[in-house]
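Appendix B. Extra example for self-study. Work through it before the problem class; the solution is given directly after the inputs so you can check yourself.
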Amino acid sequence: MKSNETKSLISVARLICEETGSRLTEKRQHVLEVLFKLKTPVSAYELTEHYNAIIGSPITPMSVYRILEFLEAANLVHRLHSINKYIICAPTFGPWKHHPPLFLICKSCQCVKKVELGNDMIKTLSQLTQKHGFLTTGSQIELNSTCETCVSETKKSHSSGEPNG
Amino acid sequence: MKSNETKSLISVARLICEETGSRLTEKRQHVLEVLFKLKTPVSAYELTEHYNAIIGSPITPMSVYRILEFLEAANLVHRLHSINKYIICAPTFGPWKHHPPLFLICKSCQCVKKVELGNDMIKTLSQLTQKHGFLTTGSQIELNSTCETCVSETKKSHSSGEPNG
DNA sequence: TATAATTATGTTATACTGTATCAAAATTAA
DNA sequence: TTAATTTTGATACAGTATAACATAATTATA
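Solution. Structure tokens for the complete assembly:
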């Protein structure tokens, strides 16, 4: 039993595919659904495991890579280069042909937060990239840092004086 | 015969290491020198090949990884997460403990441009990351896009109507 | 409808990337 | 000199990504 959210996701995805003359096959749908359920970013191999656990018919990493490539090109999935993982990207997250969001990625626990940039920020960034000979559209920004949780945990283990072994 | 630039690089690196009580060993020096010569970002394995080609004594990827980790912690080498590559970072490029630069990376040819951000830009970004529970210091920003050269080359091959096979 | 062309997936193999582990060597501290 | 620490050597292996070719499914064309 699919949720309404999932149904809407699939129908939007189908529209996007039809626009470009490509097909939203069953496997591609399933990959989207699995990513939608997970919400959190996963590697292609992790996705393969989840797929095989959730969906009836099995899939190989090779197919997953191909499907991810397709979905990424269709702006339905986003690839986080810094951590080699994938997350669902539309329609809940929305496309960003002209307004790339900022992805905050924790170096330690690899949690991710998507942040919308303000208009002036976008403008400044666009000017900067153009000035240096890079395309603005289709760009994606990843900021690698450390999240509060990981910072406080590091502090704890340091201040408590517990041994590392 | 080492250039003056290389000599100054090494002496600065030595100072940084001495500050933290660590050692700038021969291998570490060599890795720095190879990266300095290359200027362009390389993977750990590519670096290994260059090292073995340039330097007399051979090195294994395992050692290269360890040395890169060390040099990165010392702010002498920068790791570009998005493309899993390393570039020299000091003293020519300078450290950025509190003012992370923006790295423009071409998805197609993987060329890299380092861009200094203005003070207001830094400020806005810092506020944004803090607001979302991420650390500001030690962060690094990578923007994946396409460089002008690759854009025009794509256009050329498309407009000329030449077949893809 | 039959045939050809295109697209998508199956399957296997393999290359590339990164880390764990333990041993040996080199350096520093006592 | 001995002990502790740091660095490197060497091997194995886990994880990531792609190449290549075969088969199946879909679409286009006669």
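Self-check: Helices of chain A lie at 4-19, 26-38, 44-54, 61-73, 119-131, 148-159. If your reasoning did not lead you there, revisit section 3.
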